[in-house]
Design brief:
By secondary structure, this protein is an alpha/beta fold. The protein is built from 16 helices and 13 strands. The strands form two sheets. A seven-stranded parallel sheet has the order 3-2-1-4-5-6-7, sandwiched between helices. The chain has a six-stranded parallel sheet with strand order 10-9-8-11-12-13, with helices on both faces. α1 packs across α16. The two termini are about 15 Å apart.
Length: about 375
């Protein structure tokens, strides 16, 4: 019997690498209806599109006041995007509901409770929800307590819970008494080879989102400290600010022709695009728990692109870099430390890291993560059938 699966994500789904990988596996089990911002993804059978202008958290005066007064039950389903999503999916029947990130959990359980027969909910939490944007004061004061409430209220009755790595999974287990599966942000294995070096040039690259808080300024500052033999290319998804932050970053590059900005490429095309470079760089001060315990998409994208890595310290990324000898870890989070780490690498070091990334590409691909996802889906669907 073909399963009917609802996949909820309050993200632009076509730019959300993790959810797109999730859909690849979900589609093996039946018809998938996506409920999200953005266009219909290829692996979805049906798509319920949420107006991208609608926020997924309360932002009206009454909504903010309710957050401030800790009236969390009143706001769990009241954000504009959540209300619109509930209306889009009302009356439809599914065999499994997938909630991507904590903000989707109340809606997922609300919809599951409306169905004619019991339906399991899988909560893919991605990262540590209570501190998603805790470096922003308003978020820390208003939203962090709400996210903590959502986790405490809904996770214990969620039939499967997953997170991006073991460190974050352990936080959920300790704080909320859960059993958490690890589904990393690894991408599919790509049949690529390390690019040939360009004599006298070290080609640095960074991919990700052009939003404040990602320390893109620090990476620009580091490269400006290096000599003319180093270049840096950015492949960035622009923020929803009309390109304002993007323009600010370009100003910080001081007109240097060694620092170039490119539009983002589709997640599926990213490793092949990055393959022309030598080193993938990333430095992020641990201003939040998620920053401290990061294991981001870009780490795996860089490996599949057969690049060496230069990353700031983090338990998860540092362990993998050391285990596979695919790069170096900076001494701290400063632009000086990043520049020094890059400058210290010889051509032989870069060549070794790229070759070792090639050797590690299968182990650091999504194959084992896909098996975890299949196991979660099979178990939940079998429980419903029983």
């Amino acid at each position: 019997m073909t399963a009917r699966i609802l996949c909820i994500s309050f993200s632009d789904i076509m730019a959300d690498s993790r959810v797109l990988r999730q859909l690849e596996v979900l589609s093996e089990f039946g018809e998938v209806t996506t409920l999200s911002y953005g266009e219909k993804p290829a692996k979805a059978t049906h798509h319920l599109r949420i107006n991208s202008a609608l926020p997924s958290l309360p932002q009206t005066v009454p909504g903010v006041l309710a957050l401030a007064l800790r009236r969390f039950k009143a706001v769990a389903l009241s954000a504009p995007a959540v209300k619109a999503a509930a209306e889009l999916a009302a009356g439809q029947q599914f065999d499994l509901v997938v909630a991507n990130e904590a903000r989707a959990l109340p809606l997922a359980h609300h919809l599951a409770d409306q169905m004619d027969s019991p339906v399991s909910v899988w909560g893919d939490m991605h990262e540590w929800a209570p501190e998603e944007r805790a470096h922003v004061l308003s978020w820390r004061l208003l939203v962090k307590p709400f996210m903590t409430h959502v986790c405490r209220e809904y996770l214990p009755r969620t039939q499967a819970v997953s997170a991006v790595n073991g460190s974050i999974g352990k936080l959920y287990e300790e704080r909320f008494g859960l059993s958490v599966r690890v589904v990393r942000n690894a991408g599919a294995f790509r049949d690529l080879r390390p690019s040939e070096p360009v004599p006298g040039t070290v080609r640095l690259v960074h991919s990700g989102a052009a939003i404040p808080g990602r320390n893109l300024e620090g990476m620009i500052a580091a490269v400006l400290q290096l000599d003319d033999s180093y270049t840096l290319d950015f492949y960035l998804v622009k923020a929803r600010d009309g390109g304002k932050y993007w323009a600010e970053l370009k100003k910080l590059s001081a007109g240097s022709d060694r620092i170039r900005f490119h539009d983002a490429v589709a997640p599926d095309d990213l490793p092949r695009t990055l393959n022309q470079y030598d080193l993938g760089i990333f430095s992020l001060p641990p201003r939040t728990t998620n920053h401290r315990l990061m294991l981001p998409n870009k780490f795996f994208d860089f490996v599949q692109a057969r690049l060496g890595l230069v990353f700031s310290p983090s338990p998860e990324t540092s362990a993998l870099i050391d285990r596979h000898d695919i790069g170096v870890v900076t001494r701290d989070y400063s632009s000086e430390a990043l520049a020094d780490a890059i400058r210290a690498l010889s051509a032989e070091d870069v060549d070794r890291f790229k070759k070792n990334a090639d050797a590690a590409a299968r182990a650091l691909s999504s194959r084992e993560d896909e098996d975890v996802v299949r196991d979660i889906i099979q178990r939940l669907l079998l429980e419903k059938a029983a």
